[in-house]
Known about the structure:
By secondary structure, the chain is of the alpha+beta class. The protein is 16% helix and 30% strand. The chain has five helices and 22 strands. The strands form six sheets. It has a seven-stranded mixed β-sheet with strand order 1-8-9-10-11-15-12, covered by helices on one side. Strands 4, 5, 6, 7, 16, 17 and 22 form a seven-stranded mixed β-sheet that branches. The longest helix has 18 residues, at 65-82.
Amino acid sequence: MRRLPILCALIVGTALLLRCLRPGAPTSDPNTIRVMTYNIENLFDLVNDGGEYPEYVPGKQNWNSATHAAKLRNTASVIAAANADIVVICEIENANALKQLCEALAQHKVNYPAAVIGNRPNPTNTCPAILSKYPVVDTGFLPGPLLDKGYSRNTLEADIAIGADTLKLFAVHWPSKANHDSTRFEAARTLAARIDLQPPQTDYLIAGDFNTNYDETGALSGLGSPLGHQLATLQSSPGETVDFVTQDEVLGTPTARLHYDAWLELPEYERGSYVYQQKKSTLDHFLLPPSLFDAKGLSYRDNSFGVFTWGGKLLRNGVPYRWEMTYRNKKKSHRGAGYSDHLPLLLTVVRGPFQAQNPL
Length: 360
């Protein structure tokens, strides 16, 4: 990892912008940290760098200053409404787009003094990023292999200082379902190897768009589930009846490399942040290790996980109100309305011991 000094600055990769943002105020309780993960669906800037998707080439297909401003405004309004202290973002183009999002958030009087983007070691069309009202004191980048097809999005690692405690955050965006299961398996293996290097009591959180459902077993591919078997959210082997790692199991095995998938906190009918072919999907996740269920440092606030719909504003006809596109001459064209095809997820981390609660 590369050590980066941070003094009220916007961090983008290894570059410090010479502009000091007014410090954002964390939640009213300094011992309570609200964390969000949100795939914002392709936030590009208006600079033609040559790597844009066809519908995001500036001046083409109605991607112009008006639609760009609407996309920024709408995305910032969701993040501002959620009022999270730390935000994991998926699908933002580059450092410039992240800077523009921070400026749009400032219009809502929401400021994130630390912002880092996962644009290394390999450049990709879109990247994961992290916004934080707390200082980011260290960053790292894990490559996203695509086997014989080159590489996919990097995984971003950040150490966030919360008082005397540190939360290590992994921001992931694995290859899409258009790619073979093996590509997600390789991304998971890379991340699992990095986690294996951490001391057992490290307080960390894995968040982002895994493009994998919580109950996938990997039986069809024969590889197993990248989520369930590489990151150990399942106790069962590929092809067996699904046996999830429960909260009791992570509580009872503090040194094991197990992860509790926060989706298990919700009733089955409420599990979903994405819709594909009229079926809810759980592509976005928070994964929690045993260290967030112990009596030291930082802990998960039991039953704090949920899907953020902004009182239904992020839904249209019961599905995510995605950024609207129409077709003109058989090409996509921006309408300048909507938000994202994913819904944000929220949970809370606290300074202090884990306290189990009765289900809500």
